[in-house]
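TICKET: design request
STATUS: open
ATTACHED STRUCTURE:
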């Protein structure tokens, strides 16, 4: 019976030749996997700390401004569809949308989206464009026309401020 052939390779060095040595890890100049993981953990902890230290009132004010910008766009579209002026009215504590009826302005109470809401951070100072902050309720009217006047509405607290810009043709964005 024949036995299976086993191949063995051996390194044969010629006289005077030495086996080449592998460079040491420190001579390569690279980073080990453990070093890279430690750096990633440190960066992750730092990002988490920065995220936790963000001012929650600034984030809430920004969210309120984004919501108002979307609702203003909806109110503008509603005014065109209904063929009735719709107004955004705000004071230092909250805001609401009104529709103009025969006997005056009436709050939209039956509309789930354009209902009255409170600001998350109060009190809020409001002003249009470059005018001074107003204490009385501020009102912006959206008419039946698809093109309206451009404006900038600024919401501010004692720590931060956010602006809502309307271009007059239905686009609202926050800055």
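STATUS: resolved
RESOLUTION: sequence designed for all positions
ATTACHED SEQUENCE:
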């Amino acid at each position: 019976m024949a036995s299976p052939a086993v191949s063995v390779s051996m390194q044969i060095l010629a006289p005077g030749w030495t086996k080449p040595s592998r460079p040491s890890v420190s001579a390569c100049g690279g980073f080990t996997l453990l070093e890279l993981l430690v750096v990633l953990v440190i960066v992750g902890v730092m990002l988490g700390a920065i995220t936790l230290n963000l001012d929650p009132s600034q984030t809430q004010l920004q969210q309120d401004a984004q919501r108002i910008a979307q609702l203003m766009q909806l109110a503008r579209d509603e005014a065109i569809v209904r063929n009735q002026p719709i107004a955004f009215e705000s004071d230092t504590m909250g805001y609401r949308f009104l529709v103009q009826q025969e006997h005056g302005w009436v709050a939209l109470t039956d509309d789930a989206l354009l209902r009255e809401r409170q600001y998350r951070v109060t009190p809020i100072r409001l002003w249009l464009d470059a005018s001074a902050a107003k204490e009385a309720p501020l009102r912006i009217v959206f008419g039946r026309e698809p093109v309206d006047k451009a404006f900038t509405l600024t919401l501010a607290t004692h720590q931060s401020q956010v602006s809502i810009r309307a271009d007059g043709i239905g686009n609202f964005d926050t800055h």
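CLOSING REMARK: The longest strand covers residues 94-101. Helices lie at 25-28, 33-52, 56-82.
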